[in-house]
Amino acid sequence: MQQTHAGTPEHVQPTARRTVSFGSIFTYLCLALWSLTTIYPLFWIVNNSFKISRDVMNNSFAIALKPVLTNYTNAFDRIDIGKSYVNSLIMSISTVTLVLVLGGLAAYIMARFHFRGKTIVQSILVATLLIPAFATVVPVYELLIKWKLVNTYWGLILPQTAGNLTFAILVIAAYMATIPKDLEEAAFIDGCNRFSMFTKVFLPISRPVFASASIFVFLWSYNDLFSALIFVNKENVRPIVALLNEISSQYGTDFGLMASAVSLTVIPVLIVYLFIQRFIEKGMTEGAIKG
Amino acid sequence: MKGDRKYIFMFLLPAALLMSAFVYYPFLKSLYLSFFRTNGFFDKKFVGFENYTRLFTDSQLGAATLHTLEIMLYVIIFQVGIALVLAVMVDNISKGKGFFRTVFFFPIVISGAAISLLFVLIYNYQFGLLNGFLAKLGIEKILWMSETGSLKAIAVPTVWHYVGFYFVLFLTAMSKIPSDFYEAAKLEGITGFKKTIHITIPLILSDIKVVLILAITGTLKVFDFIWILARGQNGTEVLGTYMYKKAMVDLNFGYGSTIAVYIVVFGVVLSLVTNRLLKKEDITY
């Protein structure tokens, strides 16, 4: 857009400006259209969650001017969505915490220490990214049965932590590798040992990557239907994704209830995302995401 | 440094233990199980490569593979394609970058299960969003989840879900291109579309490769959408749902594990091929 200022001959200017502005109108139009696809369905579902099912069926586009809360009371009373919420939060937050602690320690070693077999460990880590949950689910299920962990919180936390560690270690290590060596030497002279170096130097500097890793691990854990269906699908431990699956098969015709369940699952996460999104970008921009 | 070995050992051990117990051991065990005919956990009989020969004659698996490849095609063309186009556009505008970044990322935050329920409502024949819209325009309603159309219908939310993720990766890569490149191009009179084709795209080729590999291996894991929207019926069975049915519904752990091994091999081969096809020197600035 700047070429119009940069010494283009006078008589060319109008045409140049017109093409540029046409181009940017087109650009904004496309971008606006795509944002509509990401915003409107959310609005539509929240809007419909405030109507009784009959109104959802008759006119799903009308704005709920007289919002009713029947669907929400149903969601809490009939399908006990509150319990699933608590289950989801307990399991996902525990998973995130474990992944960050164990992954952070391991990443620190991978980024800063030299030891025999390090390249092998690194290659194994990268190769692990190619092992999907399908390839581990049967033996993990067997283990959990043996240890009596099926349908307990640990029954989901442990496999999910193990499954997300690879990603976390690679991403955090890539970030830590960019921290200047001088900083480490200075801290060492100040009397830091390896552990206090980790807590006092590496942890604070790596905050952005810990933040973005925690967001992704949280989302992958909170949204992981496959593991939830197999390891924790009993009412008292069922997380919210498994409940959504249940709703679609049991209450597939109660559209108001479905709309409220989706809203309840999505909106809190979306609000949290809006508050912490700048960390995602920061963690991703530091070149960390490339595995 | 002295005493480093102690730290290396202590810091790596917890992660290593957990991953060995829940990733590496189970993976090897799956490989092992793929050579057995099983009946529940306790009754198993070594059958050599029988499960593997069964793979090649299993027409349902063939169909699931084709369906997965079809979704993969849509993912490569539309998901990666739209993400790239959107990233180029946002990279070129001056106002509203932050807004689009935030908004395009919305779907990723939502679980596949919730999006699936959303699309149950959107595709519903009688009063879904789409047919409601068509009715308003006076057009006849369409059966979206039909025998022939279901897979395509499910591909739409699958593609839509992760466009924003790759969009952010592309945009990040573009923001790292030093402005000298663009200034030099401007002096040469290269702007607009030409600039994108001749400068931006070649410079982020290695990121495009990473995204393609992520997208391709990601498609092999597709499960939620298919399961909730169609339970794998109406010609929508993919590798993930087929494996789940064989292993966890029919409790045929031996053959289920064989399918899992097949999925892993398929993923490795596809990543290697992608890597090979797009082989080019990495660019460092």
TrEMBL record, chain A:
It is a multi-pass membrane protein. The chain crosses the membrane at residues 25-46, 89-111, 123-141, 161-180, 201-222, 255-276. Gene3D superfamilies: MetI-like. It is found in: Cell membrane. Residues 85-276 form the ABC transmembrane type-1 domain. Its main location: membrane. Pfam families: BPD_transp_1. Keywords: Cell membrane, Membrane, Transmembrane, Transmembrane helix, Transport. GO terms for biological process: transmembrane transport. InterPro entries: MetI-like, MetI-like_sf. GO terms for cellular component: plasma membrane. Belongs to the binding-protein-dependent transport system permease family. This is Raffinose/stachyose/melibiose transport system permease protein.
UniProtKB/TrEMBL annotation, chain B:
InterPro entries: ABC_transporter_permease, MetI-like, MetI-like_sf. Keywords: Cell membrane, Membrane, Transmembrane, Transmembrane helix, Transport. Residues 65-274 form the ABC transmembrane type-1 domain. It is found in: Cell membrane. SUPFAM superfamilies: MetI-like (SSF161098). GO terms for biological process: transmembrane transport. It holds the Pfam family BPD_transp_1. The chain crosses the membrane at residues 7-27, 71-90, 102-123, 153-173, 253-273. Belongs to the binding-protein-dependent transport system permease family. This is Raffinose/stachyose/melibiose transport system permease protein. It comes from Paenibacillus methanolicus. The lineage of its organism: Bacteria, Bacillati, Bacillota, Bacilli, Bacillales.
